[in-house]
Amino acid sequence: MGSCAAPSAKGDDKFITTDYLQQCRQEESSKAAELQARQEKLDALRKLMEEDGINPEELLGSFQAKSTATKKSRGPRPAKYSFTDENGETKTWTGQGRTPKALAEQIAAGKSLDDFLI
């Protein structure tokens, strides 16, 4: 068996062998050793930072401030062009996105886009 999960009740797996128990103990002790080594490294880094006058919370706060900063949404763009559609209504367009059909028709008829500037 590759892991130390509890054996299932199917077939030959319902009895725990001594080899299996030893393997589980070895895996647990290696995990504990890895965790202890990691904690020792963290403690050493914390000590180095404190010796240099760096507060660990301050350091973490600088990373969190950058990652949690949200981008402000822009407000609506001001209209840049004004034109009259086929119904005689005056419409505006910001200049972004697809050109409105009525404006495109007037440009195709020979007018310049600059003629519609507000």
UniProtKB/TrEMBL annotation:
It comes from Escherichia coli. It is found in: Cytoplasm, Nucleoid. Keywords: Cytoplasm, DNA-binding, Plasmid. Transmembrane segments: none annotated. This is DNA-binding protein. Residues 71-118 form the DNA-binding protein H-NS-like C-terminal domain. Belongs to the histone-like protein H-NS family. The gene is hns. The keyword Cytoplasm applies. SMART domains: HNS (SM00528). Residues 53-100 are annotated as: Disordered. One of its GO terms (cellular component) is cytosol. GO terms for molecular function: bent DNA binding; DNA-binding transcription repressor activity; minor groove of adenine-thymine-rich DNA binding; protein dimerization activity; structural constituent of chromatin; transcription cis-regulatory region binding. The keyword Membrane does not apply. Residues 96-101 bind DNA.
